[in-house]
Amino acid sequence: MNHVRADLAIIGSGGAAYSAAIRATTLGKSVVMVERSTVGGTCVNTGCIPSKALIAAAEARHVALDGGRFPGIDTRAGAVDMPGLVGGTQKLVEKLRAEKYVDLVDAYGWKLMSGDARFQGTPDAPILAVTSAAGGAETVEADHYLIATGARPAVPAIDGLDRVDYLTSTTAMALDEVPESLLVLGGGYVALEQAQLFARLGTTVTMLVRSRLASREEPEASAALAGVFADEGISVALGVVPDSVRTDEAGRVVAVARGRQYAADRILVATGRRPVTDGLNLQAVEVTTGPVGEITVTDQLATSNPRIWAAGDVTGHPEFVYVAASHGALAADNAFTGANRSVDYAHLPRVTFTSPALGAVGMTDEQAMAAGIRCECRVLPLEHVPRALVNRDTRGFVKVVAEADTGRILGITAVAKDAGELAAAGVYILAAGMTVQQVAAAWTPYLTMAEGIKLACQSFTRDLSMLSCCAA
Fold first, then answer.
1. Most exposed of 14, 61, 259, 303 (fewest Cβ within 10 Å)?
2. Range of the domain at 430
């Protein structure tokens, strides 16, 4: 049996794993990375890249169909060539996987092993046993280990669901035809993006939602997105949790909730994700996990075993690839330099890539009040934002949450075109500790959506209906 020795052994090959490997090698450390499936992890293979590429394509079709909102414009869109669309997306995935993942292994000089990794040994002397698909076996011994195995779609315990051919956010990206109708279980960001994606490709979509859309964000965001979805023909059933799922005589999927039936050709399960920790034999090295299998870590990303770290979605922390990348570098620094750096989500931006998009940073007003902060809020409808007016789409808003006594901005939420860019601007505003008065007086280019943040701040003290279109 071949035995490999390294300073850092990493299980997984996604954003957290690569960030850690790059940081460790720049520190002069030797790295071994073990991947049991496709190199690159969720983001490039089945998550961000393919989903956003398909969302962009679906939006292009929608823009063509919706061109009539501009006087004098007449546009049309034909049927979707799903194999062509998926095939083109896969080519993009393969290109980015090669350039941003596979090629970097040789560029940085770490060792990549293919196989299933499993801890063995003792808590004081952990070792990885790596078994390849062909049955070969190797062991890896390292000074430090990083678990970066990510998460997979969660499947709820609904009677009969395991007997129907359900879709997940992963398998939905590989369909060879556009479903005529689709049930979407869930109301979070994956469910929202997938529901609108398929609706814009021509599918009749019904969402079955436990509470409300985007339930962790401002209630105004839920209302705005509900209005957008209604405009686009997406049915949203709130307060619905299926009791059972079955296939009827016509081959359609039927979900039953409190005696009411919802039927469609396909069903997509988008009710969250669960950390991937099965098969790692964590108990042998005394690494503790939480209720859904997430690895319990400190703010420095240390596990209960001082030689083992964890990063990314497997920790149960916010599931964004930029969080995973930050985790990876932080864990490597803490392991090898004693930096004792901690993760801080105070200014973490959150984006849902619907159209218009949902972007947010900082606290909601509910979170501010729960923290005992006396706050003041303003919600600016997009009808007051010139960029939205010329776009002929005023669906949405910009909301600013501020500390009442000081005016310091605590949170910004927007439903608007390019709301992700507004959230990015909000990161800098919050990090600088800016007040509504400062933002209201700051330079902002006219006819940008970002001007909505300035206008929302001006609305704390002024009646915007009494200003000219570009008044400072």
1. 259
2. 349-466
Angle at 349 between CA 47 and CA 44, to 5 degrees: 20
3 state SS for 73-135:
CCCCCCCCCHHHHHHHHHHHHHHHHHHHHHHHHHHHCCEEEECEEEEEECCCCEEEEEECCCC
Same domain, 56 and 119: yes
Both 17 and 145 in a single domain?
A: yes
Structure tokens at 337: 């330099």
Q: pLDDT at position 274, please?
A: 96
Residue 472 pLDDT grade (very low, low, confident, very high; cuts 50, 70, 90): low
- Is 247 buried (19+), middle (13-18) or exposed (0-12) by CB count in 10 A? middle
Instruction: Kindly report which listed range (62-76, 386-400, 423-437, 448-462) carries the lowest average pLDDT score.
Output: 62-76
**CA pair distance 421, 452, nearest whole angstrom:** 12
Please state, in angstroms and rounded to a whole number, the distance separating the CA atoms of residues 423 and 414.
8
Structure tokens belonging to residue 419: 């709301």
Residue of 291, 18, 37 lying closest to 170 (CA atoms): 37
pLDDT in tens, 208-255: 999 999 999 999 999 999 999 999 999 999 999 999 999 999 999 999
Same domain, 9 and 29: yes
Say yes or no to pLDDT of 469 above 80: no
> Based on the structure, what is the number of domains in the chain?
3
Q: pLDDT tens digit string along 60-74?
A: 999 999 888 889 988
Q: Quick check: is 44 in a domain?
A: yes
DSSP-derived secondary structure letter, 289: B
Q: Which pair of structure tokens corresponds to residue 211?
A: 């509470």
Of 441, 391, 394, nearest in space to 73 by CA? 391
Same domain, 113 and 235: no
Helices (H), 109-208: 189-201
- CATH (domain of 180): 3.50.50.60
